[in-house]
Amino acid sequence: MTSxxxxxxxxxxxxxxxxxxxxxxxxxxxxxxxxxxDLGLAPPYEGGSYGNLxxxxxxxxxxxxxxxxxIGMKHxxxxxxxxxxxxxxxxxxxxxxxxxxxxxSETILHCAIYHNRKxxxxxxxxxxxxxxxxxxxxxxxxTREEKPYGTVDLVESLLEVLGSENFLIIKNxxxxxxxxxxxEAGNLALLMYNSCK
Length: 197
Ligand SMILES: [Zn+2]
Prior knowledge:
L-fuculose-1-phosphate Aldolase
């Protein structure tokens, strides 16, 4: 992870409703947040955790549920820690959501991946010095340049290398693990983490 501090989200949010998502998928999403916390893949900072996890609402839908900004994964998460993202406009840097808090700072990144990879239904973004250090040895594709978190520049740098791979490194920052299901995305992250010996 870079030394860049968390300063909040870098896009505008339009709330279509203040209602937090209420969906059975939250059970698994909460469990993966806990696992990421326990393994140190979403390291805590004062006020939250460095990491964001999401899942698509339904096959090929643009809508997805994502962790809220500044949620601490060391705590038991309630439904209102999550936000339903209805749509994103990267050009206007505008995100339309339903929920009682702002969505994760990397919401536009998740949105762009779901848009470009219809095969992907879950995206888990975490931070691990261990995985960053092992990226080259494990032959993991990496974005070419370091970009500030939560920006459209970072999104573009990831789209450049996205291809059809399900695990990528954001240079000097963290990793993105993707899958057809949360189980696939989560297990892939665990496999990579466990390969760094
Ligand atoms: Zn990050």
